[in-house]
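Model it.
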Amino acid sequence: MKRIRAVGRRTAGLFTALLLVAAASGCGKGSPAASGHGNTITFGYIADYSGSAALAVARKQGLWKKAGLTPHLKVFTNGPLQVQALGSGDLDFGYLGPGALWLPASGRASIISVNMLGQADRVIARPGSGITEPADLKGRKVAVAEGTSGDMILNLALRRAGLKPTDVQKVVMDASTVVTAFSSGQVDAAATWYPLIDTMKKKVLGLKEISRTQDYYPELTFPNVFVTQPKLASGNPALVKKVTGVLRQADDWIARHPAESETVAADFLGLPAAQLKGSTDHVKILSSAELTKLSGNGTVDGWFDRLSELFVQMKELPKAAKAKDYYLSDLYASAGKADRT
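Modeled.
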């Protein structure tokens, strides 16, 4: 079985906090929601804006109580750890960034909702390095957290420039170490994301952005998503629909109050509001009506299908998968009908 890598987005300044809570990231077999029975659930999240905003709003607005649900929220450092917990029955629901979407494509999780569209990934270069476009990366040292969306943006940039991954000196390291290596000049370039890049901008004045997520839109779109156990989706669809309904309402609130949602998420994470200010500049927030429409006309399936093909090229998947096999778009739509009744 393919080794699950430690993949995930982390907000700048949160690494120490994440290490402290990592020991609590799994919920044990004794969890009241380990089997998905009743209205008590366990829900995983990542301690950054995209990974927590919907859950923060659901708590703040009383959406769980309104739906008759009792959530036990568990913080994780990355998506693959949540998928492991889903597979063992220790977690009912979780959150994945785009770099971990090969996991549901491989059948290990079912997507119940798109959360937001990521627009934060960049390939950046140090000033004075002579790197002004992706073609200039040939032969240069590039820091990247392997298997993440940073890895995806690097592969896309190289492919567009007619280069292969072996044409660069790929220096694989943890996302936090990428910040240190780039800032100290140990590497010429890095493939990473905001808000980590904000931290690097303070230390490396004049860094260059040579490839952006938006450069590949609409050919490729980078959703982050909420997932559940496939067996829970098939065995207790009523519960999954209730949870999806809460997420729909939370996302709609965020769409109406983007700036305020940054403050709500910061409060949820126990951070100063300033630390998440501007987070919505690097995501595209979709209302439930928009997502329902895009799911119904096949647009969302297309996002996942094209990413699946990319994961094959990155050797994360042996063959491409079809979104219809792991994105529960019908359940998402029906959860919206239930909200209106």
